[in-house]
């Protein structure tokens, strides 16, 4: 199981270590530093690194490496999932997850880590249980604690810990009972030079914010549930009911949670909501090139030898960073009558041959009140409690990893 | 007001100040001080000096303070065991606390304090907590058993905690069940022989029920445990599959992958005709695709596993090619994996798409990725015949880009395409030759030289091209030198008239001016071949090459089957069985896929044969584990083997003169064989071994290894077995172990229906095939049988270690006997350790594991000893002469992956040798010594 955890910042300093079994010397991280040196960028450090006596499994988030040390055969996905859970928990506790904030809250961090694993076995990873055991720091609580001498550590066994619904605590009370659902879909796509779609798929999630008193039992039904053939549920969803009736039936956790994520594959034709016309050319002879793009808020990575770009957009603002060779163009709203475009010339480093590779355009966009897959919620019902909750649903489509090759 | 204040220090000295604060009367100040101590601890500062002061703060009602002190204790108790005892009373008291949270906390912390004296006190509270009324305490206690086992395994067994833990599998609370399973699995891992998780249909049923209700992590443990179960028939397998399938929709990817493992394994038992089989296949695809939209680290592990799955069952993902297309901002490790899977899924139907993608990738920025993409195009050409033409033209387009590394990579793969489709694409050679000057990597240069040599007759200026390489012969890498030598000899055989000078030049460069024994050997072989028998030379050098196929980069089927059982584990990430990288002392049980049951199997295509079988329908190409086809042609470029003692230079010169003369004399391509009598006899030695090298290309290593076989002894006397007498012995040949038996019928009636079975034993020895006695055994007749054995049977530690209990059945009765097998039948062929590795491992193994033995009355010298031992797979790594005595350093590996290192001291005057053995599992040493003695004395 998980032996130890090291947190390492971008400059290669270990700024926190936690051991769940015997203490492993931090020199084990040298193997990690070696791998880090070999990798061109932080993102490219391999997630599994073997050393003579241990294995190092790492995730890279918020510019911090979370490196777990294991000694025996353990499912690596289990470790990586857990590490991501740790990051999520920190984020949940402190709002952001950064080196500074972790150092500022080192004692709470340490207590939380101790609560999350016991001897390398996960103990409590649900955020609501953790929060009952160790209360997240707030300014008010710190002040109260200093005055009264009370602590951040709960002294009662969290009620959810063992119940059949470990994700929900009992005795929840709200004056305003509300349940909001956001259907968010991301399009991952690769568009080739000529504008035809090479791959396109939709990653959808339904995020919920449920603030309801007592133990409500909710059912959510869809107009077109057949769209959802590849789904992952929050543990609260009753799988049998979904299999037989295609209805989501669940006792919700309290607060924010991800009810469902789904995947609509490339076979169901995805209609791409934006298109990009581009004409980027470098000339061999002169150190100039032409550049023209129409449509879309975007990011473009230019080849190394590009020195600068002189461009005029029809709308929005654009920035070219000569160091990272990143051109970003924030378009703003797209007006179908007058399509936004960005035109101009590219100046290349004199003397070098023209770049071999063409830049890839990375597209970001948002469309409100539309789920591109066509998924629609039919109704939401509540059982088990008497009051009438306020219900709301929002749809949104975003670009995920949306790339246009030129 | 943040915790960063705990890091600030004053000038007076931190420890001193903290000590004062810890002993303060004010509670608040104490707590702040403990927090400062913890903060220092988290950044790796040594604050162990404060131990007594911190422990003094332990008796408190304040739970936070208590927890902080516990945190401190866990870190430092080991360094101050005597002081840690001070804490015991508080622990024992806390274990009785009415608040379950505190009871659990106490038992949890006690388990983490790895001090022997404390563990003694832990037993009673732990026993109580295992039966606690509160499930939270029980589940914590279950984990504590695993902790305790890690510290003192014997204690856990003596106290009967294992049985209590087994009982917890039937607990009413699913969380407790999950933790009990997790704890048992961890204990079982360090004790492969103990049959801890005794799975039967009832316990499986309980686990499946708990599976639905426990936490996501618990589900992983339970699923991994289920995967070890062997259902008794296809119906049971199907019902388990049905109950596991819902886990495929879990949000936690580890749960999904563990469920995939269970399904992939049990699917093996289902008949392909079942509707359910098809449904299951369909259900497996979406979750695997979904894993690819997770974070990159998860993607990587998922991709490594998908790589195995598409090799085992390509039908699952055959329509999902597009999800493996590479995005430009994927991390490099994800890109490379995706590329590999794309090739595996490439087929005639999607090849156009794949090629277009690959071409796109070949223009990216990342060099490693571009190279692999170019190689991938070559693999496509070899895999999908219809696409070969398109692949070649794509490669030519890429060569036109003139990007240096793209050109080099393209040339390497075109060489493979030439071999796969001879006489089809040679028209492109001209284009390749244009790029000769830009090649600076050995592999590309070697490939180009190979092409020139192979097609010398079609390239007008082949001699000029090769000559240009010859100029810097000594600066080239071995790979290029060898290839150049062969290519020029090829050229000479094809165009003998114009190239005599060239061939002489290269032969003398290779034989006289080179220090590389490989190169020299090969030079001599060619020289001698050319001078004695040009026809034979032609047959050898211009021989037809075996075809290559895409199968070469597949994982070998038996290994693949084993790896399928390890989906989701580290083994699946490295594509190696755990025995290859988990340390031997841990002992690893081999896993295998269950055989398919069901009725209609035999009527179907060969791949429905029982899972042992897939090896049978392998193409005749030698499957290697190598990553890329590039390896193929390099067969002859293996690592330099230490050559035999070379002929002295004078002799060499003589040989050169002789051969040179004959070369000159034989104008017009016909040679007058050099009179063999005048040829120095020493030339024979390198020549012979060189030939050996050559034949190794096809023969593989170790063909000659046959270890010592003891004479047969009577195992089962006729009196004890109603007239059946069995005598036998064990042998190991070419990597396979067998039991050589003689069955003699000393009764008056005919014997038939023989069968044999082994009891579980220390190394998992088991018959690899049924005992085959073809005809009934008539009275007074005997029959000799060789029974092949493998080591994948169940494991149980025996006393003595090499004891084997055998049951033999015939039409009369069942008979039992036991015998001791010599351990050297378990020494595997790849037991030779790297020198560096040997040194490191020797140092690494603690001295108490070293045992010394005397081998008496042995008169062999060091070299004879080492060659004799080598025959039984004991490899000499180094030999040293220290003060007149020879020291041999040797290594060997047992079938279960245990390495044994040996130091053998031989004094020339003294007939008794001293043998020191070091091994992580010292209990085997004695038997290794016995093996040494048997081998050396026979």
What's the layout of helices and strands?
The complex is a heterodimer of chains A (406) and B (938).
Chain A lengths: L1 E8 L4 E6 L9 H10 L9 E3 L4 E7 L2 E7 L5 H19 L4 H6 L1 H11 E2 L2 E2 L4 H7 L5 H10 L29 E14 L5 E15 L5 E6 L8 E3 L5 H7 L1 E4 L4 E10 L12 E6 L5 E7 L3 E4 L4 E8 L3 E5 L4 E5 L10 E8 L11 E4 L2 E3 L8 E7 L6 E16 L1
Parallel strand pairs in A: 8-24
Antiparallel strand pairs in A: 1-2, 1-5, 3-4, 4-5, 6-7, 8-9, 9-13, 10-12, 10-23, 11-13, 14-15, 15-20, 16-19, 16-21, 17-20, 18-19, 21-24, 22-24
Chain B lengths: L13 H9 L4 H16 L8 H6 L6 H14 L4 H4 L3 H7 L5 H13 L3 H15 L4 H17 L1 H6 L2 H8 L5 H17 L10 H13 L2 H11 L7 H11 L8 H15 L7 H17 L4 H17 L19 H14 L5 H11 L5 H17 L4 H13 L3 H17 L8 H6 L7 H13 L7 H9 L7 H17 L5 H13 L4 H16 L1 H8 L15 H8 L5 H5 L74 H17 L18 H16 L13 E4 L7 E10 L2 E10 L9 E4 L7 E2 L14 E9 L12 E7 L4 E7 L14 H10 L5 E6 L6 H10 L3 E8 L2 E9 L5 E8 L6 E7 L5 H13 L1
Antiparallel strand pairs in B: 1-2, 2-3, 3-6, 4-7, 5-6, 7-8, 9-13, 10-11, 11-12, 12-13
Helix pairs in contact in B: 1-2, 2-4, 4-7, 6-7, 7-8, 7-9, 8-9, 9-12, 11-12, 12-13, 12-14, 13-14, 14-16, 15-16, 16-17, 18-19, 18-31, 19-21, 20-21, 21-22, 21-23, 22-23, 23-25, 25-27, 26-27, 27-28, 27-29, 27-30, 28-29, 28-33, 29-30, 29-34
